[in-house]
Amino acid sequence: MIEFTIEGTISDSSLGGGLQSGTIKLFKIPAGGGLPDLVTSVTSDATGKYSITFQRDKSEEYRIVFEKSDYFSEEFTIYFSQLSTNEAYVHNFSVEARSEIKWIIRNVNPQNTADQVTIQKLNGRTDCEDCCPITSYEYTGSVYNDTLSCAVAGNKYVRFYIVNLATEIHLDSVLCPSFGVAEYVVEF
């Protein structure tokens, strides 16, 4: 029986140190394509280390998927040509804790239906289902009360512009706590 080993350490880039109890799943992609097939799943130890040993087969590509509650999932591809039966393939990586920024938008001085405010998000994650694109979000109306929520990396700043009635431009940022919610009230 011929075996490969993939090992490494998972670091928490939001809080520092190794990340304990993360789930690392190894999938194989059959030669010529096809659906990923789960080979095995392991859990990182107290220092963030993991090790996966598996039998060599005819797969050309392998996929590592990392998951842990309150962290963004990560996915990596490793090709058959990168693996060796003589030594372990080392794959260290870091992951980010989840956080949320919530803009609370209110028209507190309604003048007419053309009242407008724009939030221009300048940075932050865009690669998850509840992440927001880096773009402008416009809110118009005389009676307005809404919320814009975006998943972001924990312990990082999110920068943005607030443009009020296309005349007043304000650059700001908010530190988003790991595993928490940062709220920012936008009144126009």
Automatic annotation (TrEMBL):
<dbReference type="InterPro" id="IPR008969">
    <property type="entry name" value="CarboxyPept-like_regulatory"/>
</dbReference>
<protein>
    <recommendedName>
        <fullName>Carboxypeptidase regulatory-like domain-containing protein</fullName>
    </recommendedName>
</protein>
